Amino acid sequence: MRQVIVIGAGQAGQSIVTKLRSEGYEGRILLIGDEPVPPYQRPPLSKAYLLGEMELERLFLRPASYYEDANIELVTGTSVTSIDREAKTVSIGPRVESYDALVLATGARPRLLPEAIGGALGGVYAMRTLADADAIAPEFKGGARVLIVGGGYIGLEAAAVAAKKGLNVTLVEMADRILQRVAAKETSDYFRDLHKEHGVDLREGVGLKELRGDDRVREAELTDGTVLDVDFVIVGVGITPDTALAEAAGLEIENGIRTDEYGRTSDPSIYAAGDCASFPHEGQQMRLESVGNAIDQGELVACNILGANVPYVPKPWFWSDQYDVKLQIAGLSMGHDEIAVREGEGTRSHWYYRAGQLIAIDSMNDTRAYMVAKRLIEAGKSVDPARAANPDTDLKELLRG
Ligand code: FAD
């Protein structure tokens, strides 16, 4: 293995190149990203960084000196435009580079509003990149009227920052409840109350019909006919995996770039990891959108490129910061049929069960419950829902069975 090329200098791309070196790989590594900056963490973009409480330097996953010291050729601000699978080369503009192993870590693109309903007006923002966050920041002035479209984690986090900064915040969610796709009703209820306490005008079961303005957005019409005056709009309606290069190269696509359990695409010399990649899980191709997944899959792919042949076993975890609430999630809650609610002083956790088996937890300011449940879930163990819900049950005891 003389040359590994990684396309996409994000969380997964960084994880792959770091792991290749720490596993002793001495060949050439080329890490290519189209954003104009070295790999950085996205989560603070809708949290501490947007709030102005985190310096730019702290976003970067590694100091600038790392890449030279580790002999990793990092190319930023440059797109890979095509892959020639026969020749095993990639085109980076006019430059052509050959690979022995290639990794697609191209991430995802935010879903945008169609131009026909005002999606291209000034003052309408997505929230995916550092450039997005830097463009939005000057709009966060006390008293400004912001409309947030979408009640997923990113929309809710942006709403929390905006409310904290004294903006007038309206959030619309087309589904019956916020977080419908990812969490139980109990968790939606908790966060709805939290936002309402902080003065957010949160409307569920209402979508956006149209944005209007001259060059800049001025008003928004909702599906229930309400018209709102707005100064700017943040769109947080989900992402789509970036499969463009893979598709053009004829790789199999299924809910993202299709990989096997080893992270290999339909071409054995090409791997995929992170938001762009789907992997086999319980009879389906599953895709996770999280830092933990990008890191773990990236490391797995690096090890498998070096011949480890280890299958991917996802250990999903996620977090979200809203006001002074830290939400921590472990496991996958899909298909749950029972929820145990555990309440303590200033803490709360929702334990998800499927057919009596603990499968996931949402914990609000309860890191201990999160840690205990995470260990149980990863070990395939369970605890009786009534015991989990009882605040008098010692959490550590749950680990003992
Ligand atoms: P990305 O980080 O998107 O990196 C992919 C990179 O590849 C991008 O820079 C892209 O521009 C580049 N690229 C694509 N095509 C090409 C090409 N042809 N040539 C060159 N470069 C290319 N996760 C959590 O676990 N917890 C959180 O609290 C959380 N909060 C988040 C908040 C925000 C605002 C956002 C946007 C995401 C958040 N996430 C969170 C999700 C997490 O950040 C992503 O899951 C993670 O960044 C995925 O990493 P990735 O490397 O797969 O993709």
Q: Unreliable segments (pLDDT under 50, ≥5 consecutive)?
A: none
Span between termini: 46 Å
C-alpha-based Rg, rounded: 22 Å
What is the share of helical residues? 10-25%
CATH class designation of the largest domain: Alpha Beta
Mean pLDDT reading: 97
Give the number of DSSP strands. 26
Query: In the CATH hierarchy, what is the superfamily of the largest domain?
Result: FAD/NAD(P)-binding domain
Could you say what the CATH architecture of the largest domain is?
Answer: 3-Layer(bba) Sandwich
Describe this structure in words.
The protein is built from 11 helices and 26 strands. With 401 residues, it is α/β, with parallel strands linked by helices. It is globular. The model has no long low-confidence stretch (mean pLDDT 97). α1 (11-22) packs parallel to α8. Flavin-adenine dinucleotide binds at residues 7-13, 32-35, 42-43, 45-46, 79-80, 105-108, 127-128, 154, 242, 245, 274-276, 289-292, 294, 318-320.
Topology diagram in text:
Elements: E1 3-7, H1 11-22, E2 28-32, H2 48-51, H3 65-69, E3 72-75, E4 82-84, E5 89-92, E6 95-98, E7 101-104, E8 108-110, E9 124-125, H4 130-136, E10 145-149, H5 153-164, E11 168-173, H6 185-197, E12 201-204, E13 208-213, E14 217-222, E15 227-229, E16 232-235, E17 239-241, H7 244-248, E18 257-258, E19 270-272, E20 277-281, E21 284-286, H8 291-305, E22 317-322, E23 325-331, E24 338-344, E25 347-354, E26 357-364, H9 367-378, H10 385-389, H11 395-400
Parallel strand pairs: 1-2, 1-7, 2-3, 7-19, 9-16, 10-11, 10-16, 11-12, 18-20
Antiparallel strand pairs: 4-5, 5-6, 8-17, 13-14, 14-15, 20-21, 22-23, 23-26, 24-25, 25-26
Helix pairs in contact: 1-8
